[in-house]
Amino acid sequence: MKPSPTRLLLSAAAFCVSLWLAGCASSTPVQAPPLVPGERVSVSQFDDYWFAAARQGRWDVLDSLLQAGYPIDRANPRGFTAIILAAYNGHPDTVQQLVQAGADACLGDNSGNTALMGALFKGELASAKVLLDTRCDLNQENNSGETALTFATLFGRYDIMPALIAHGADPNHQGGHGNTPLRTAQTQGNRQAEDVLKRLGAD
Fold this sequence. Notes:
By secondary structure, the protein is mainly α. The chain has one domain: Serine Threonine Protein Phosphatase 5, Tetratricopeptide repeat. Helix content is 50%, strand content 0%. It has helices at residues 5-24, 47-56, 59-67, 82-88, 92-100, 115-122, 125-132, 148-154, 161-166, 181-188, 191-199. Helix 5 (92-100) packs parallel to helix 7 and helix 6 (115-122) packs antiparallel against helix 7 (125-132). The relative contact order is 0.13. The mean pLDDT is 88. Residues 169-194 are annotated as: Disordered. Residues 1-32 form the signal peptide. InterPro entries: Ankyrin_rpt, Ankyrin_rpt-contain_sf, Dendritic_Spine_Reg/Scaffold.
């Protein structure tokens, strides 16, 4: 069934609000965690340090916690991992360091939105380009059936669309709710996105 513009926009808006709240929740500069040399951390005790450091791109804090045994893919109650928060808040160097340390960039939050989707929504294209080189399936869908290419379509990230497709995004992928990136552009009445997608092989 063809998705309505309202459903697509509400999905995008829900993503916006949830990640915006997460991104703004840590306005105070993060402090170095009180670690004892050789100590193995109690995970919940250091959650606030971990997620604040991810939002602020503080690799020094993240690395110190990793060295003390903090799990790299731990998620907060909304399902946001460090790599999702770092990507959304525009810290590509931290995203790269998390990837190199073994973070799973394919994990989605509670709505199925991945770090790449967050970066595309926010327009953090440097973070998005780092994430293109991970092992993730670029046709992975969130809970609303949207892919990274659908996000690029919805939010006008035309410059990165060729790279998305070159890395495996299918311009004709039909999501679980019946939408394709091209159909999304047509539903929006977005002729520019429609033209770009057609040039890249959408039909």
